[in-house]
């Protein structure tokens, strides 16, 4: 008996491009799940995924009428999905724009910054945070990098000032009208103060993490910015990047982290 009649060998025609196709789709769905995890949108995400699978199965088995009906529902629902998932879509697009695969190409042509270019603001932030840590003065300082922060800058008061520890300490002084919100340092200048940042919705954060830390996490989850936080309750210094928080830093450790992260490719 010819075994070829009993065994379907069609999988031999499985090409490398098919494997790559599956991997890309899997990565996209995984990142979408990560971005919607912990939000109300995650349930909607699974419902959409379920309908999409059903639509493909119905089309595969040639249920013409049912396939057409589901297809029309999906096409009409795209506009509604764009409205419902507007924050998540924006976050996902920012993730793509900050992806390492894009930075790999852009870094070949981008100017590499050295420590001297950032020495003024690093020293100013280090000295200001060291003093504010002792006095338990709350502070939130954002270093803009490749991702434009125009949306955040528009919410604050434009300063365009030379960075100094005296200026930063005066901004975050408790009786100052600018002490609420964040200071954004852009192009080696204090660009704006009292800026409003998006708050992280990460459900795994400790309960003692306050609004400043959540705002720092939210801004660095969406952009490649670096956030420096001084806690008003404990005076501890923290640094946040890529949605990850490093806490209980000394002023010297803060300086070292800023040098490494601001001057790297």
SSE layout:
Blueprint: H1 16-36, H2 41-60, H3 64-84, H4 86-97, H5 100-106, H6 115-135, E1 139-143, H7 150-153, E2 157-161, H8 165-171, E3 182-186, E4 189-195, H9 211-222, E5 226-230, E6 237-241, E7 244-249, H10 251-263
Helix pairs in contact: 2-3, 6-8, 6-10
Taken as a percent bin, the fraction of beta residues is 5-15%
Number of strands: 7
What is the 3D shape?
elongated
Distance between the termini: 64 Å
Arithmetic mean of pLDDT: 80
CATH class value of the largest domain? Alpha Beta
What name does CATH use for the topology of the largest domain? Answer: YojJ-like (1
Specify the helix fraction band. Answer: 40-55%
| Structural class determined from secondary elements | alpha+beta
Radius of gyration: 24 Å
Widest sheet: strand ordering: 2-4-3-1-5-6-7
What is the total domain count? 2
Element string (H = helix, E = strand)? HHHHHHEHEHEEHEEEH
Query: Strand count, sense and closure of the main sheet?
Result: 7 strands, mixed
């Amino acid at each position: 008996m010819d075994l070829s009649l009993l065994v379907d060998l069609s999988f031999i025609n499985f090409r490398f491009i098919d494997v790559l196709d599956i991997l890309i789709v899997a990565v996209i769905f995984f990142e979408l799940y990560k971005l919607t995890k912990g939000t109300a949108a995650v349930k909607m995400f699974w419902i959409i995924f379920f309908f999409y699978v059903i639509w493909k199965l119905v089309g595969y088995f040639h249920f013409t009428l049912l396939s057409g009906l589901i297809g029309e529902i999906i096409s009409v629902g795209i506009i509604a999905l764009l409205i419902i998932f507007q924050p998540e879509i924006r976050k996902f697009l920012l993730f793509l724009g900050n992806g390492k695969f894009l930075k790999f190409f852009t870094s070949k042509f981008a100017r590499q910054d050295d420590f001297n270019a950032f020495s003024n603001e690093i020293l100013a932030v280090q000295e200001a945070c060291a003093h504010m840590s002792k006095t338990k003065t709350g502070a939130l300082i954002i270093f803009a990098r490749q991702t434009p922060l125009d949306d955040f800058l528009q919410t604050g008061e434009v300063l365009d000032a030379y960075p100094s520890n005296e200026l930063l300490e005066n901004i975050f002084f408790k009786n100052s009208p600018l002490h609420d919100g964040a200071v954004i340092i852009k192009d080696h200048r204090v660009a704006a103060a009292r800026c409003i940042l998006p708050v992280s919705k990460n459900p795994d954060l400790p309960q003692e993490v306050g609004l400043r830390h959540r705002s720092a996490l939210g801004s660095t989850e969406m952009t490649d910015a670096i956030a420096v936080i001084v806690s008003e309750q404990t005076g501890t210094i923290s640094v946040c990047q890529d949605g990850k928080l490093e806490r209980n830093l000394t002023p010297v450790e803060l300086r070292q982290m800023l040098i490494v992260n601001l001057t790297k490719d």
